[in-house]
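Hi P.,

Sorry for the delay on this. The queue was packed all week, but I finally got your sequence through. Input first:
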Amino acid sequence: MNRAGISVLRRSFTTHGEPPAAEAMAEHIRQHFGWRVDAPRYGETVELD
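Then the structure:
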């Protein structure tokens, strides 16, 4: 949480659609919101902490 008590998004993923569409959506989110967004490849795993 930030100082205002609002939950801060540390990382998000786009997993819907074909890879070019998922990456385009991730880029849109990055530009519009400034979030860290990944479009993982098929079979890719990510360790969350």
